[in-house]
Amino acid sequence: MKVESRKVSDSRVETVHIVRPNHLNAAGRLFGGMLMQWIDEVAALVAKRHTHTNVTTASVDNLSFLKGAYPGDSVVIIGQLVYVGRTSMDIKVDSYVESMDGTRTLINHAYLTVVALDQNDHPIPVPRLELTTEDEAVEWEEAKRRRELRKSL
């Protein structure tokens, strides 16, 4: 039986949000919890595109808030697979503020682990990941190191 596989580019997701008044914290910046929700949604979409099944977030390895976003800012969120295990996937999600001229400034960097589920919410095997670029291979190796670190804790 042939093991199914897909490319990183097959499941890449990019979303755009406008920071509105209801997204703000008391300091007048984008509420971190709102950004976390958007990041989790992007990671789930990446995983669903790869597996064609339901998924659930298992963990967030890293969530680094680098800069704020403000009312009216366009926030671009890009997610892509960096590693697949037997039933889980590691997904890198980067968030940017995009200026009117298209320049993007990184505001958040996150890694999430998402698990594929069957109709009874039990983990199921996921398709393999085809790495087609050197950057994808580097991300794969970095994800392996993060997974080993998680296991050692």
UniProtKB/TrEMBL annotation:
<dbReference type="InterPro" id="IPR006683">
    <property type="entry name" value="Thioestr_dom"/>
</dbReference>
<comment type="similarity">
    <text>Belongs to the acyl coenzyme A hydrolase family.</text>
</comment>
<dbReference type="InterPro" id="IPR029069">
    <property type="entry name" value="HotDog_dom_sf"/>
</dbReference>
<feature type="domain" description="HotDog ACOT-type">
    <location>
        <begin position="9"/>
        <end position="120"/>
    </location>
</feature>
<keyword id="KW-0378">Hydrolase</keyword>
<dbReference type="GO" id="GO:0006637">
    <property type="term" value="P:acyl-CoA metabolic process"/>
</dbReference>
<dbReference type="GO" id="GO:0005829">
    <property type="term" value="C:cytosol"/>
</dbReference>
<dbReference type="InterPro" id="IPR040170">
    <property type="entry name" value="Cytosol_ACT"/>
</dbReference>
<protein>
    <submittedName>
        <fullName>Acyl-CoA thioesterase</fullName>
    </submittedName>
</protein>
<dbReference type="InterPro" id="IPR033120">
    <property type="entry name" value="HOTDOG_ACOT"/>
</dbReference>
<dbReference type="GO" id="GO:0009062">
    <property type="term" value="P:fatty acid catabolic process"/>
</dbReference>
<dbReference type="GO" id="GO:0052816">
    <property type="term" value="F:long-chain fatty acyl-CoA hydrolase activity"/>
</dbReference>
<dbReference type="Pfam" id="PF03061">
    <property type="entry name" value="4HBT"/>
</dbReference>
